Amino acid sequence: MLSKYKNNYDFGPKNNGNLFYNYNLDYYEKYIKNNNINLITADCGMPKIDDSDIIINKLESSILLIGLRTKTNIICKILYPFSEENHNTVIMLYYMYKYYDKVYLYKPMQTYTNDEFYLICYKFNDNKIDDIYNKILNIKYEEINELEKYIDEKYYYSIYKIYKKLIKFKYNAVNNKLYLVDNYYIINNNKNILNYIYKINEKIRNKFIKKFEFK
User: Is the pTM of this model over 0.85?
Assistant: First the structure.
């Protein structure tokens, strides 16, 4: 794709496309504004390597900051959205919730056992602009953690409620798998039991993948 449609890609002023450089982040922010782009999509996933948590945290939070500053709709894959290691992403999620009309964390059926989520931020609300947003416009990407002092404590309670739901679903998933392993030979030879298990698993997955809306 890259070699065939090279002219469709923009790798920034120095042609490296590295989002860990502020000059590239500034460049893309201006590009989005100047070209009236209304949707940002991003896949922030990467292999598990040394310091990958730090890299993902910087990448995710930087992309969200670009979206917030440009008032752009966002669809972005994020990992461990509320983990301590992903601190800046946790901070930025609060501000997405604060300034967008709709914010969803969506869990696809295909990834219900891992830590991948899709963040959907829709319709920036200009009526919510305040002094804090003006600070966001001027803050540097490496200073995102300074925004934490403006966060409403109710936000952390929302995180707690989401985690309770996730823990419950994962607990059920583990129990189901253990049951299947322990009773494999009995279940595998009984179509009625198999059909029943498929229905139960489908019901659990459908609950797990529903959108988590901040309230």
Answer: no
